[in-house]
Specification:
Order of helices and strands of chain A: HHEHHHEHEHEEHEHEEEEHHEEHEEEH
Largest interface: A-B, 207 and 207 residues
Order of helices and strands of chain B: HHHHHEHEHEHEHEEEEEHHEHEEHHH
CATH topology of the largest domain in chain B: Aspartate Aminotransferase, domain 2
Radius of gyration of chain A: 26 Å
Number of domains of chain B: 2
Distance between the termini of chain A: 66 Å
CATH topology of the largest domain in chain A: Aspartate Aminotransferase, domain 2
Largest sheet of chain A: 7 strands, mixed
CATH superfamily of the largest domain in chain B: Type I PLP-dependent aspartate aminotransferase-like (Major domain)
CATH architecture of the largest domain in chain A: 3-Layer(aba) Sandwich
Helix content of chain A: 25-40%
Strand content of chain A: 5-15%
Strand order of the largest sheet of chain B: 1-7-6-5-4-2-3
CATH architecture of the largest domain in chain B: 3-Layer(aba) Sandwich
Distance between the termini of chain B: 38 Å
Structural class of chain A: alpha/beta
Shape of chain B: globular
Helix content of chain B: 25-40%
Largest sheet of chain B: 7 strands, mixed
Shape of chain A: globular
Structural class of chain B: alpha/beta
Number of helices of chain A: 13
Number of helices of chain B: 15
Radius of gyration of chain B: 25 Å
Oligomer: heterodimer
CATH class of the largest domain in chain B: Alpha Beta
CATH superfamily of the largest domain in chain A: Type I PLP-dependent aspartate aminotransferase-like (Major domain)
């Protein structure tokens, strides 16, 4: 507990207020419900609480004990020690949103650094200070595009190869609005060009993922051209690690880039907190939701930073604001900023190449096994789909016996992809680990064949 | 003295971080898909560490001093929370691992759901929402789904008192709802006559912040809830001010149907310079089936030997996901640690001391600063930052001058229903000495306002930067610095 008053201090304070007891402060609360008898256990000390939390943590199998080939939107990457060391500075993590620029330049300039890095990485022109995660960033892109056309265009063309969770969130946000979503029932094996026939004059936004949920990479130039020819916008949800190697959505002509920033120095933490990237072109800056930091000067002539274009936001516009976002992912954006600062030009390219080569080595090893085949011939980055000879949950159960965390079971989200596994490989997977995965799968395909005989 | 930007610190050719060499045969890279340039900074580790350390020193944080920012509950963030969130068994667990390998995380989430249900008086809780504003959105979507399921889709009106947070109307509008504002009465309560006039067939619900943004507990809350329910509406509780109510009253017992919690306010998870937050939502029995999925539940009960088996379940009429994966687990681990360290008695003490501290400051300042609704407040109160005899001085000047005394200013110009509002929330973690030092500074500033108003007008004086030119920032819109050596957009 973190209270400091002594009994004598408490009495003195009550006297100053002019009441006799603490209870007297709560007369406005209906008496029948005042001071409920909460069914909660007594307090623990720090020693006891930490020990209990360690027990919970030990009941998990962490990917430090397992070899992980699981991705599907959250990736195991190395985080340089300096990232967390800096994040732990109380001046950063115990501050609130930088409403008072005179005593928040640290947060403000860091966000400005973040905006600069995201702009450089995505090939766009402006970035906001972040959204909650990759899923809500896409939902906000839809709201922005809808508002951009003043509600006159209500169609959204959505690729089925966008992360299933992201698509679900988009539907939750848009239920009951005039927005109509098409495209999710398209053939999964088709590339982004299959979306083009769905783009019509009512289309506000076309949404694809890059690399897509299945790890595939496609040139998006024609899609961008088709969207623009119809007057629509193109949003691309990215994996930022891939942009260390691959052409940017900006080069293809994207209007909005969203993405999950977790690979940039943020631990997996069972799914959060992560980081929603959001960048766009200058002409749409006033339509973009979320906080934004701009450069200016102070009354002493010094360069300074401040939250800007706040008139777009909920605390000013109230019911006329296009988004209710207020808190963003400040500290996670700082983690990504420090990560990108440390890795820089060379490091980000290096980690992207490591992921690429190791994933391709793994794909080659696995597809050489009887019963396993690559589902798609399209180029891929660090994740790929394998058709398996057995149900994926059975394979994963078997792999766990070898302390291997297998890939994602795609049948959960796509019935047509039953027995298909999505495998992710990063710089954290050594050649030896990849070989062990292939060996463990080989045992299984051998057992499978044996059971047929 | 200003700190250079990353792009100014960058030196071409410098390498800060090296990964091991590739240990597998190299595959051909996809021709035509490679970027030609990666215009990121080139720094080495010492540059980076010093840059961000120096930047951190330009910030005010709770670890440095008092931070009485109203409605933000800037209480101390315990250090043990940070240790817990970083335990390898928590930090290095993938969200899509098989459930049997993440029983520790699921058990913690289950316990947190149970604690929040008990504290709020609710039948179900989702931990998925990422922040308070997303919790609000979740709540309004649940209200809409409930009416739809009952064949009452025409209910599209949300009532919002004029003392509400700005997120409330924005959230309602985002959900396609029509917003009608309800005024406050002379004691800062919801005006019952105004409320009655809007209770009709189109009423979906009321968004109630209680205690409200004046820091006052609505004295008619039971009547407010009764009126809304009688008209077929639901009552949404904005839990941003829950720090006043722990162990004092359970919103569910008052008839509130939906409420969001802010783990980053009430339950001590750090604000992180503007996030990440975490905004779980609690609901009454009739709304449990509409919660976003998945929730954590017990799949197989345990016994003396074995713990229960936990797993994810999907509510029957769920509004769907509001976020990828399962919410901000790292924040849940911190909040649950904090709750365990307070337990039953500690919960009540949090709110008693938060309310004691706020009333103490109110009592010390009320003769110097006009407090428009001057009755016993809850965890915060609102004073006017202006005096009739010196019309030149505004709340902003007082706020800026406070920085020279080492204090973060209170929330200013909010709520909108008080002129030059200064909204002061001390929280329970401040000592009497800190409260007195703040009150002394406020009283001194009131004197300075008359003896040397220029001192306030030109404040702050002792901060890394002075008052900034916000108009220039919005007009010139410099939003990033370029690492780019070529302009890709001109191609």
């Amino acid at each position: 507990m973190y209270f400091s008053h002594t009994p004598a201090e408490r009495e003195a304070m009550l006297r100053t207020i002019g009441v006799k007891s603490l209870e007297d402060l709560f007369q406005a609360v209906p008496a029948a419900h005042r001071f409920p008898d909460l069914r909660l256990p007594p307090a623990l000390t720090e020693m006891e609480a930490l020990s209990e939390m360690q027990e919970y943590a030990l009941a998990n199998e962490s990917i430090q004990e397992l070899s992980s080939f699981l991705g599907a939107g959250a990736y195991h990457h190395y985080i340089p020690a300096a990232v967390d060391s800096l994040l732990r500075r109380g001046e950063f993590y115990t501050a609130y949103t930088p409403y008072q620029p005179e005593i928040s330049q640290g947060t403000l300039q860091s966000i400005f650094d973040y905006q600069s890095l995201v702009v450089a990485l995505t090939g766009m022109e402006v970035s906001n200070a972040s959204h909650y995660d990759g899923a809500t960033a896409i939902a906000e892109a839809v709201t922005m595009a809808h508002a951009n056309f003043r509600g006159k265009r209500a169609r959204v063309v959505l690729s089925p190869a966008v992360h299933p969770h992201y698509r679900q969130v988009l539907h939750t946000y848009n239920h009951g609005t005039p927005i109509e979503v098409v495209g999710e029932d398209l053939d999964l094996t088709a590339g982004p060009e299959a979306l083009i026939p769905l783009i019509d004059p009512q289309t506000a936004l076309v949404i694809v993922q890059y690399p897509d949920f299945f790890g595939r990479i496609y040139d998006l130039t024609h899609l961008a051209q088709a969207a623009h020819a119809a007057g629509a916008l193109l949003a691309v949800s990215v994996n930022p690690t891939a942009l260390g190697l691959l052409k940017t959505p900006g080069e293809f002509g994207a209007d909005i880039v969203t993405g999950e920033g977790q690979p940039l120095g943020i631990p997996l933490s069972f799914g959060g907190p992560y980081l929603g990237l959001f960048a766009t072109r200058k002409e749409y800056v006033r339509k973009m939701a979320g906080r934004l930091v701009g450069e200016t000067v102070d009354n002493r002539g010094q360069r300074a930073y401040v939250l800007t274009l706040t008139a777009r936001e909920q605390h000013i516009r109230r019911e006329k604001a296009t988004s209710n976002i207020c808190t963003n992912q400040g500290l996670m954006a700082l983690a990504a900023t420090i990560y990108m600062s440390l890795l820089g030009k060379h490091g980000l390219r290096q980690v992207a190449e490591l992921c690429y080569h190791k994933a391709h080595y793994a794909a080659q090893k696995i597809t050489a096994l009887p019963g396993y085949a690559l589902w798609s011939n399209a180029p891929f980055f660090h994740e790929f789909v394998v058709r398996c000879p057995l149900p994926v949950d059975e394979i994963n159960e078997h792999l766990l016996e070898y302390d291997i965390l297998g890939g994602y079971d795609l049948g959960q989200d796509y019935p047509q992809l039953e027995n298909h596994m999505l495998i992710a490989v990063t710089e954290m997977n050594s050649k030896e680990e990849i070989d062990r995965l292939a060996d463990a799968l080989a045992v299984l395909s051998y057992e499978e064949e044996a059971s047929y005989e | 003295m200003s700190e250079p930007l990353l792009c100014e610190l960058s030196v071409p050719g410098r390498v800060g971080f090296r990964f091991p060499e590739v240990d597998v045969p190299q595959a051909p890279l996809p021709e035509g898909m490679l970027r030609q340039e990666l215009p990121l900074p080139e720094l080495y580790e010492v540059d980076v560490v010093r840059h961000y350390t120096r930047l951190s020193q330009l910030n005010h944080g709770i670890d440095i001093g008092f931070y009485p920012l109203g409605s933000c509950t800037m209480k101390y963030n315990p250090k043990v929370n940070e240790e817990v969130a970083r335990l390898p068994g928590f930090a290095h667990v993938h969200p899509l691992q098989p459930e049997e390998t993440v029983q520790g995380s699921l058990a913690l989430m289950y316990q947190l759901q149970e604690w929040l249900k008990e504290i709020g008086g609710f039948a179900g809780v989702t931990l998925q929402p990422a922040a308070g504003a997303q919790g609000e959105l979740t709540g309004v979507l649940i209200i809409r789904a409930y009416h739809e399921a009952n064949g009452q889709s025409q209910r599209n009106k949300i009532l919002i008192p004029d003392s509400a947070h700005g997120t409330n109307p924005a959230t309602s509008a985002m959900s396609g709802m029509r917003v009608v504002e309800i005024k406050s009465d002379g004691r800062g309560n919801v005006d019952l006559e105004a409320l009655r006039a809007e209770c009709d067939e189109s009423l979906a619900g009321l968004m109630l912040t209680n205690p409200n943004t004046l820091g006052l507990f609505d004295e008619n809350v039971e009547e407010v809830v009764r009126l809304v329910h009688a008209a077929g509406g639901l009552v949404y509780g904005d839990g941003a001010n829950l720090n006043a109510l722990l162990g004092i009253v359970r919103p569910g017992d008052l008839g509130i149907d939906v409420l969001h919690y802010n783990l980053h306010k009430t339950f001590s998870t750090p604000h992180g310079g503007g996030g990440p937050g975490s905004g779980p939502v609690g609901v009454a029995e009739k709304l449990v089936d509409f919660l976003p999925g998945p929730l954590v539940d017990i799949i197989e009960p345990g016994d003396d030997e074995e713990p229960p088996l936990y797993g994810f379940v999907y509510p029957k009429k769920s509004i769907g996901r509001v976020k990828a994966f399962h919410g901000h687990f790292g924040m849940m681990a911190r909040a649950y640690t904090y709750m365990r360290m307070h337990g039953k008695e500690g919960m009540r003490m949090i709110s008693e001391y938060a309310v004691l501290n706020a009333n103490y400051l109110r009592a010390r300042l009320r003769d110097v600063y006009h407090v428009p609704y001057d009755r016993i407040c809850m965890h915060e109160f609102v004073a006017e930052g202006r005096w009739p005899d010196i019309p030149d001085i505004q709340a902003l000047d007082i706020a800026k001058r406070l920085m020279d005394f080492g204090f973060h200013p209170p929330t200013n110009y909010f709520p909108l229903i008080v002129h030059d509002a200064l909204m002061i929330e001390p929280t329970e973690t401040e000592s009497l000495q800190n409260l007195d030092a703040f009150a002394d500074a406020m009283i001194k500033i009131a004197e300075e306002a008359r003896s040397n108003p220029e001192l306030l007008k030109t404040a702050p004086h002792n901060t890394p930067v002075g008052r900034v030119d916000e108009v220039k920032a919005a007009k010139e819109l410099v939003l990033c610095c370029g690492f780019r050596s070529t302009d890709l957009s001109s191609k």
